[in-house]
């Protein structure tokens, strides 16, 4: 497949928001308990947090972590998770039919986040709770002292406020599966009044209102319009959730997931502009893609969900611990290309989730934490894809897909970091064909520092996974690159393996 990419070195199109490299820690399955937190594990610190997991979180390059849900938050009382651990109540978590011990809560998570070097993105419960409880949590977290709530925080060991800026107003409130599910009008009003109260309490907060749970929701579009009409003066971001999977053997559509995300983001951006214009508002509302990933959701829905939701109430059950293969990693890489390309509209994005639950990091009580295949595109993009997105043009052929129509077989985005280093992220979506990619950098001469690819390993194929015992999938050097520099431009010729990022 011939592909021609021209990258314009002097043309920056948008700054890359550092929050694009977010993660998500939900009280679900083994993400918190037996995930980031496992007292008694040989690598656990004095607080009970696993250091092997923490090291991989740092290596992953996560900048912000959404917490504590997800569906979990819609039945959660934040007060249960503060104060002496031995006095914390054990509760039923109806979202995931689990028993919640509350041994990890706000203080523990804030401490962990600080050690991991990530910002906390705190979600409030707008399913079963409301304005007052959200305000209480904010006051408890951020007010310096001298009030009942802030003194309670101080008595619980945090003399200084947590200073949490970023707040999600509920989670997936459009979904009938959500505890306390609401109509767009009901949610829009509640989100607006919660936002107003939270701003009265702390004018520094940045607020994310809940958009649709996915683009296939019957209310998609109208939900965003209605919610924004209520909240456009108060919200800073509106959420997008997007999960992709290979189903019915349709690998072409799966590999084209990035094109699906492009359309989703463009549609939501259009609705934001439409409502701001309608209301005559001159302000910016970003898109917070605060749940995205590959998730074999059909398997969960068809084979596990009913049993889990009608079964016992276990502690930290094994839920949706998807084992990712090479193709999944290539798709994650391509979704990151889409996110980077939308840096002008996407203000943050959170890979869902961080550990064990549809996660790039896996661990077991009796094994050291390991990197799933999807770990690598995220880590490399977070490490290299900083600074600004560069203008570029790509010429390449398309192939038909059942889900997205004709989709280009190669996709790419380029960035320039503050130190002037340039990165090009490319995906070859073809299942059997190599891509012959030529890249021309115009407006400057460059030296090739490094080239890597993630693709089927020697002796493996696109279905190869990393397991606790063997991790054959990781980026390898991309060899055979021809470079040519002169007359103010640099040209590269590179062969991309099929199904590669
Ligand atoms: O990430 C798993 C679940 O997916 C979250 O709890 C929910 O918000 C979404 O439906």
What can you see in these coordinates?
The protein is built from eleven helices and 23 strands. With 501 residues, it is an alpha/beta fold. The chain has two domains: 2-10 and 388-496, Sandwich (Immunoglobulin-like); 17-384, TIM Barrel. An eight-stranded parallel beta barrel has the order 2-3-6-7-8-9-10-11, surrounded by six helices. Strands 18-17-14-1-19-23-22 form a seven-stranded mixed sheet, covered by helices on one side. Strand 8 (206-209), helix 6 and strand 9 form a beta-alpha-beta unit. Helix 8 (257-279) packs parallel to helix 10 (326-341). It is globular. Residues 26, 28, 69-71, 171-172, 213, 291, 352-353 line the site of alpha-L-arabinofuranose (AHR). It catalyses: Hydrolysis of terminal non-reducing alpha-L-arabinofuranoside residues in alpha-L-arabinosides.
